[in-house]
């Protein structure tokens, strides 16, 4: 039976993101609302420390010491999940298959933080000084700790849709 995790965001940006480990990848699904239309960086950070809000969550989760990059780049941070797209309604649906993270073992993301940034992540391909560390995607606008999900909670999740 695959392990399941959940991340609930309750600020100006609200939503629930689900994580399900099956085989060699983690399926990341869910929906967020309250975002500005356009692309937003989507990352896992090193720590689940909220002593200073999103500022204390540390850098992107990077157990291999790589530069920032796209999710499918072999030498990118494990926590680099690319971008999510918010529609004009402020809703973003998330559907990602992540292969550099797990929910168990040495590369587990349980207890780490999921963050959404204000701008599009350049996937390490930009010319800005921050491209190789953060994707030059601006400040974190929402974050929450990833925790183990109760089976009942995961089974009852709502499947959100959008008209766009």
UniProtKB/TrEMBL annotation:
InterPro entries: SOD-like_Cu/Zn_dom_sf (IPR036423), SOD_Cu/Zn_/chaperone (IPR024134), SOD_Cu/Zn_BS (IPR018152), SOD_Cu_Zn_dom (IPR001424). The keyword Disulfide bond applies. Its cofactor is Zn(2+). Residues 13-146 form the Superoxide dismutase copper/zinc binding domain. Gene3D superfamilies: Superoxide dismutase, copper/zinc binding domain. Pfam families: Sod_Cu (PF00080). Its EC number is 1.15.1.1. The keyword Membrane does not apply. It comes from the Eukaryota. GO terms for molecular function: copper ion binding; superoxide dismutase activity. Keywords: Antioxidant, Copper, Disulfide bond, Metal-binding, Oxidoreductase, Zinc. It catalyses: 2 superoxide + 2 H(+) = H2O2 + O2. Belongs to the Cu-Zn superoxide dismutase family. This is Extracellular superoxide dismutase [Cu-Zn].
